[in-house]
């Protein structure tokens, strides 16, 4: 590291610029077959131009980064940092580092990091901020509604940090990180947090009760819901979510179909006065 | 047609563009969240209290949705930017507004599918330009073109929906029998379940599923706020990480 | 002697047979549980409310008992089928009925001991028959004979207790001073402890004992229902299993 | 497995029959010295007759299954399934499988499975069903009392499932299961659940408070119970259970003696107005 | 000067000696705890109720302090033995008394520093005596001499403070503007934080820090008493120990 | 062990005496440079005299125990027990055990045991007893205040037990204990308990709220504290403690400075009507 600093071509400003292009354009050109490849390429463009004054090298570099890419954009910007550091090294020692190596690293990291990011950023940070703002809004607090902006704000700076981190760590650190199994442990930890959050959110925001009941002679009417509550509160929503989950496990994640099914079922059950 | 309606419709169209163009990774999506839309429309129409109430209620249905790999199960902003203005105009209550929002949320997700399909052309165009060493085309294809597409695809229909829907919706709502209305209302309470199940399906390693159950029943039995679960969940996750790291060092 | 008493006594005798003959592994024992007995006797005598109240109160004392290796610490059905009819007849309140039940529960467990001892002969008989190639004797010895034994051993005494006990019990109860009555009542609240301690002794590996303490104080401090603890306990147990499995794979 | 199916002699009906004989007779002939040996033998009889048309073989098989046996009947019916599969195999290849092997497997499994079953079925499922029904009965709900029947119902079907599972897994799977240490981990997990349940049940259903207290001059009377509650609520019942537990650890599980001791102690303490 | 004041001052001086001489490892420190001092001074002055209230309030500020390696962050007894008698005499309320106590607690910790510095001489003296085979000097240097030092160092200033402070304090308190008083009061609620942070810093391995957060938010969200956390904490600690032991055996 | 009992010179009374001298004098002569060396030496004196009738040996032994020593006195008295057993052995077989060995063992143990003791005795047992007494005192219960004495009482007997334990275990057991990693696991476990306790105590006894707020036109005044409570209750005290903790991590544990800083900050904030 130390001996290279005098040769550094990528400045802090370059990193900042690359990150910003990424942050703002990341999903703008998202498409089904290539997802974020175009925005990844665009974000690296300025830095690559600087590293490869020769048009052919530059072209090759751009083509390299038009390959399939998709990850969660906030945590995932660590990959942009790493890529910058790799490209910088490649521009200085072209023979040491092959383009394939860079692609391999990118595609190797994007999957696990998408899992981490989707869990932490979108599955935890976002609903927390939204829930906060919603609670306030529902108690008629106008300012509260604008608390949703905490999420993009935090997201922006976390991403910036990750990008810088990626550049300063470089590929070695990341390689070690993956080898040591640390990555897997991080994913596991995120999985724990994410699942607890989804559980908590489910309990807070899914509501389903039944109005079914029957009446024996000489007795008060017996409500099924009361019996269910006696067994355990929150049983129906829980069973519903479990049902959907296992349906997805078996038949895949057909959101539309499940949605339609639920709406129809709701209306039918409402017709028979069961819900 | 009164100017108030036109103004609100114009705002909604533009705002739908803002929040589906994805300009700003964590920002764009947030701008279209119902709670914020409710507040903004409340300010615009001078019905802040109603706006907050309807926006907040609607938010509950969408706040748990995540979009792994570009799947958009339902579009919160489409739902918000059609249902909230109608509700504010016709005086629908928050519950009915939520019901009303459901189909628009689903239709909105169709727009996303179209956008993601057409966007392919821009990536291909960029690729061809690079081949021809027209390097500047990359950024253009990554920004301006898809944004124009999004504008046409999303701003226009939302604008039109805002202008055409009120009368339509009003007569529709009057036509729906009470029990069906109630059924849709029930569906409204149930729909977030899909988002959560999907998230669990995506995140969830089998061996950690009990944590979902724990999170669920902590809230059920102890009535802890979501933030509380986030705190304890973070602690448990960190402990798992730290102790596993420690083990693997030994 | 009135026919009502006779009828109830006959029912109790037969029911005691049904619930101690063990015909139906998880069924037989359940049929004799005080809460069910209370409901049935309530229906029979037309005192449903009282029956449910007394049966339910009595149940609390017996619901935690497990029978590892054929140990029957106390017989819930003996207690129920003597104490509940007497209480319904004499108008004893639920508390006093619980007190009254204690000795009968213990006497009942003596009957089990006798049954388990005599049953040996049937196994031996079956063995001898197999030796003589009289194969059909196996099932006979495994079913009819021990059931007849159980009938004689348990139905008869409970029938008699139901006929003789009321007057006896009434005078006994009158004779017991209030403080002693209160003492027996206290004992009633304390006795379930033996069952639980026994279960812990049986299930409990030393290194997991803290989970007992956790279960105990979760209920004490958070007033969570037993089902809640069952849910969280299941989650923790599964996590332990899954994570240990994962470790052992690595 | 696949190559044997064409040779299968045991039909699903046989398994169902064997399980039913077991479910209904399991404990009927329970005795102190042999426990469930007779009912085990009886349950296998029909299938064995089919497998061993020769009277001598049949006799030997019956004798084999009259050996000492005891387990928890619900989870334990997995052993019946395994035994059926073993006997079937033995009847086809008598030299491959010895009678001793079958006995060894049965006696090897019955202990740990008894532990699992007693914990899950009798220590968890039963008290939950009873507690549910009791709560309802105590709030004067007649139907509620009949909820106790959930327990035998669930028990019956769990047992049926276990029996079928045992047959289809056969001995290999089980052997691996034990070797891999999985069995121990399952027992540990059950132990965790069982202990938490016992703790929760203890807290809910053991009650003990003291009425002891004293009065200083010029002060309100001081109640010992208040002080104990100040230290921690539920202290006395907890101490009592711990006491009984450690007594059992030292002196063995003398239920009768402990019971008598508690009754006498209660009366004595009541006499001195301490409880 | 009235005799009451003298008497109380004498008691406080002596008691300060008793609780800072460290005679009795766990005893000495305990004797100087504000809650006990409050009770004792309450009895002496006949103002039991006030004494308990002020002592208890003051205790909250000091009960979490630990002294690893001889660091005394604040001296509880100095605070108690000056602030409580003054408050009892001048009728200060518990809040103000807590405020008043803060500086004395800090000044008290300075006395500890002095004591620990001078004490060195006794160890050196003992060493020299052993060299000269004067073996009995060891115990003398370990007990009598440092105790005399403590008496002079701590009893005297507390005695004087008790005599001189009341008038001084009264005029001081009158001089402090209300907002500053409130500020000091706020500081009183915040100061225990230092003790806890210090303890975490001392005890806390990085990888276990989440347990601090768990403990904190269990109390916040579930309003469990400290004892409850102690019980659950003990269970978790034991489980950690047992399971790790088990692992290391395998 | 068994073969040595006939040669034992140290009696139970000696151990009791040594412990008492330790318990009572432990910190009396505490000083900055040597901490508990003098009291350690004093506590062993009588036993050493008995073991080393020869004045030179005795002198050497005393000098040995005047070396630097510091630990938590309650749990730490296990070291006194061990030392007694070692000195006894040395007095019988002077060549087997060197003085250095004894010193090494003492200094090796004192650190980890101080950690355990500070956590368990001072960080857990003491605040629990004090909190108990304080709660009672605050509800005007005079007797309650004297419950603080539970702490020294328990402390005295725990220490006595540890001292006896140390003597009977001797050095071998302790050596094994450390080697096996058990010591580390015990420290870890204590750390868990201690941290949870500190968390709970912090939540109970640190209080900080803000009175800051602002008013928009046509709206109720918005209080910052309400917003913070909406995010999470107890946020400010938590942030404060975290702040102090990280400050200490960076700048060391300057109690006085932090204290002064807090008081000044409180007064300043009060002046601006923020707290
Ligand atoms: O799943 C990774 C990633 O995939 C897509 O790019 C988008 O849906 C992102 O929001 C998501 O984070
Ligand atoms: O302990 C195993 C088993 O032993 C006996 O057979 C009976 O008490 C059963 O109820 C129990 O499950
Ligand atoms: O930290 C170990 C130890 O150090 C010093 O001797 C004193 O502060 C003790 O109270 C403490 O236990």
From TrEMBL, chains A, D, F:
It is a multi-pass membrane protein. The keyword rRNA processing does not apply. It holds the Pfam family EIID-AGA. Signal peptide: none annotated. It comes from the Bacteria. Its main location: membrane. It is found in: Cell membrane. One of its GO terms (biological process) is phosphoenolpyruvate-dependent sugar phosphotransferase system. The chain crosses the membrane at residues 142-165, 186-207, 227-248, 255-272. GO terms for cellular component: plasma membrane. Keywords: Cell membrane, Membrane, Phosphotransferase system, Sugar transport, Transmembrane, Transmembrane helix, Transport. This is PTS system IID component (Man family).
TrEMBL record, chains B, C, E:
The chain crosses the membrane at residues 30-48, 60-88, 94-114, 142-164, 176-201, 213-243. Its main location: membrane. One of its GO terms (cellular component) is plasma membrane. InterPro entries: GatZ_KbaZ_carbometab (IPR050303), PTS_IIC_man (IPR004700). It is found in: Cell membrane. The keyword Membrane applies. GO terms for biological process: phosphoenolpyruvate-dependent sugar phosphotransferase system. This is D-glucosaminate-specific PTS system IIC component. It comes from Longicatena caecimuris.
